[in-house]
Design a protein that fits this description.
By secondary structure, the protein is mainly alpha-helical. The protein has 21 helices and three strands. It is globular, with a radius of gyration of 21 Å.
């Protein structure tokens, strides 16, 4: 049964992509909405199976590592699979109503959407370095195409900049993979970790890990490698921006985190861990500051993504040469941060798209009066902002609380200052949007009112982000499940 569920996650998105490639936008929407339901059910089924039986490794075609393609199906992987089903499904439903079906190039949204979903699932479940690279490339090329669907010169420029950054990051990662294979004779992450536990660390092996993490940091838009992200996220269609911010940049971070947690202790160094933490801290402060200064709504949300990504890289110093308790707290905090940020940022981009559609402008000063006549989308935007500000009972609060405990438990108290400053700066740019909508009000309703379905979708995502803190124990318990065996049950 589990084999069929994995096949559904990895291969049926490719079938949906081919089907929608043969249709126009409207027919592709119907096919995709059926596909979204199927993918959500399959994702939930695999999550329940792992919750019941535990995680496992599986070699495709019966070929185990190092010769075959190895899948790692554990609690963390299936949690991200289910998160992808929720967020991508919501974005797909929103896009079906939001995107203009009359523009001929919009028909390519659905094939790119499904290729992106397939690549994400391949990354979450991948267990060897090269096939993680294949998944990353599928994600990057699909994301670049989705950005270019804006059809304007600015969208094309942003997509080309995104493409160049993605290719450079992939090149660095692939060079690291080649060095890793040359030194250890395997591409399995678990195989490399096992080899290192039984042998001394080869000279120069740290360079391979450094190249891979550098390439992944570029793909994740870690400061100061972030300049490609705001133009791409800011000019893309709002459902596309939500996908990019909530899921795409998380895929490259997910691989970097897996590499660091399994290989960082023997191959990394304390100086490297602290440097990555400092870059993450700079991203939090600089990204938040720039978000406060933007004049366009989606640019505010895009620079907010730069800031929120910075929190994720605190994982590196908080899990290096520390106690198991502190390392576990940091890992749990990062996981909750990824999940809550994905839900909140998807809700925020979709709500921002509704507001822009209503006022006919991306400028913040055009929001005057929208609070009186279109409160639902504005409330969704603010509710998502509450999670970014890390106020209880949101998932962002639970994540930052665990990170704060890990910082103090490891004696690295300076990261606490970053966590506090980031929360205050997040409040500043969220309240700036609310100030524009409440204080600069007009007397008559001159706004376009979107379909109610467009407003319900970001509200659901924002509520999920708000309630994540209430169910964090259950989410973390699934991710801590042990492996049940080598094959699928």
């Amino acid at each position: 049964m589990t084999l069929w569920l994995m096949a559904g996650l990895l291969f049926t998105p490719l079938a949906w992509a081919v089907l929608t490639l043969l249709t126009d936008f409207s027919r592709g929407r119907l096919v995709s909405w059926v596909g979204i339901l199927v993918q959500a059910l399959v994702s939930l089924g695999l999550w329940l199976a792992v919750n019941r039986d535990g995680g496992f490794y599986y070699g495709l075609g019966g070929w185990d590592a190092p010769l075959g393609i190895e899948l790692r199906v554990d609690g963390l992987a299936v949690t991200f699979v289910l998160l992808t089903a929720v967020v991508a499904g919501a974005c797909g439903l929103h896009a079906g109503v939001y995107i203009d079906p009359d523009k001929p190039w919009h028909r390519y949204f659905w094939p790119l959407f499904w290729f992106l979903w397939s690549g994400l699932n391949a990354v979450w479940l991948g267990g060897d370095l090269f096939n993680l690279y294949v998944g990353l490339e599928l994600i990057s090329l699909s994301a670049v195409g989705l950005v270019a669907l804006g059809g304007q010169a600015g969208a094309l420029r942003a997509s080309l900049r995104y493409l160049l950054a993605a290719l450079l990051g992939s090149l660095a990662y692939l060079l690291g993979v080649a060095l890793m294979y040359g030194q250890f004779g395997t591409l399995s992450i678990a195989g490399v970790a096992t080899w290192l536990s039984d042998h001394p660390v080869p000279a120069g092996s740290g360079m391979a890990l450094a190249l891979m993490i550098a390439g992944l940091a570029l793909k994740t838009a870690l400061f100061p490698l972030h300049r490609w992200l705001p133009p791409a996220h800011g000019i893309a269609k709002s459902p596309v921006s939500a996908l990019l911010s909530a899921l795409v940049v998380k895929a490259s971070f997910y691989i970097a985190a897996r590499l660091w947690l399994e290989l960082g202790q023997p191959l990394g160094s304390l100086a490297a861990a602290q440097l990555i933490g400092l870059l993450g801290s700079a991203a939090v402060v600089w990204g938040s500051w720039l978000a406060c200064r933007q004049q366009r709504l989606k640019q505010v949300v895009a620079y907010s993504s730069v800031a929120q990504i910075g929190y994720l890289f605190l994982l590196f110093p908080l899990t290096f040469s520390v106690s198991e308790t502190v390392s576990l707290q940091a890992q749990q905090g990062m996981t909750l941060q990824v999940i809550s940020h994905a839900l909140a940022k998807a809700a925020m981009f979709l709500a921002a798209g509704n507001l822009i559609l209503s006022v006919g402008s991306n400028r913040i000063d055009a929001l005057g009066g929208v609070s009186r006549f279109l409160p639902f989308s504005l409330f969704s935007f603010g509710l998502a902002g509450v999670s970014l500000m890390s106020l209880p009972p949101t998932g962002g609060f639970a994540a930052k609380w665990l990170l704060l405990q890990a910082s103090l438990g490891s004696g690295q108290w300076w990261w606490v200052l970053v966590l506090l400053a980031g929360g205050l700066l997040s409040a500043a740019y969220v309240f700036r949007i609310y100030r524009a909508s409440f204080l600069e009000s007009s007397g008559t309703d001159q706004f376009f009112h979107p379909s109610r379905s467009l407003e319900v979708i970001p509200m659901i995502l924002a509520i999920l982000a708000l309630g994540m803190g209430l169910v964090s124990d259950q989410v973390l318990s699934v991710m801590a499940l042990p492996f049940a065996g080598e094959g699928a049950p």
